[in-house]
Amino acid sequence: MTPELLGFQITHRAMRGDVRRLADLATELAEGRQSADPARATAIAGFVTALCKGIHHHHTMEDQVLWPVIERTAGAEVDLRDLSDDHSELDPLLAEINGQAAAFAAGRDASALVTSLTRLADMLDEHIEEEERLLFPIIKKYVSVADWKRVEDAVRKGGDVRVDLPRIEQYARPEELARLRKMAGPVLALLLSLLRGGHRRRQRLIFGPLAEV
């Protein structure tokens, strides 16, 4: 058996998709094509902050848990330095975005967020594409199912099921969602049905006309 990487793929896709959508939303807000009252501005800022926290947690678990597993099992087959350097560049940008989100919630315009979120979206696109191209074949070849489960468990510990599960449903393709349901059993379908309505309401409040992926 080889590790099942579908969960990581969908998580990567969700991070990239949400950051790009937020960059587009910030652009529309800055250009006056959308508006945000205090409640919506607070919701947008909260979503930005939660997303930045999730991105930080994901790459921290890669550094602390996944990279050691790969180095132990694959050794000289892979060089992780460039990917680690990318991670080190992310944290200052995430901190900058968190500050800009707080300022937006307090009444500032969204122009600063446009630049920072667009930069983050571009960085994630490049980094994740490279990471999946380089590491997914290595993981499938060298990493055991047991080691991979420990990596996934560590990543899940810092998540929020109320946010993470609806995002999986939002970004998974139909055939991928069917695979996930087959692996997870009926509990997944039940949780998704319970969380779906709240997620959709939050998405409409935050993204407005951009609420659909």
Folded structure, characterized:
- The protein is 83% helix and 0% strand.
- The mean pLDDT is 93.
- With 213 residues, it is mainly α.
- The two termini are 34 Å apart.
- The radius of gyration is 18 Å and the shape is globular.
- The protein has helices spanning 6-30, 38-74, 81-105, 111-142, 145-157, 161-171, 174-184, 186-207.
- The longest helix has 37 residues, at 38-74.
Short description:
The protein is mostly helical. The protein has helices spanning 6-30, 38-74, 81-105, 111-142, 145-157, 161-171, 174-184, 186-207.
Supply database-style keywords.
213 residues; mainly alpha
What topology emerges from the helices and strands here?
Elements: H1 6-30, H2 38-74, H3 81-105, H4 111-142, H5 145-157, H6 161-171, H7 174-184, H8 186-207
Helix pairs in contact: 1-2, 1-4, 1-6, 2-3, 2-5, 2-8, 3-4, 6-8, 7-8
Strand coverage percent = under 5%
Please state the average pLDDT score: 93
Distance from N terminus to C terminus (CA atoms, Å) equals 34 Å
* Backbone shape: globular
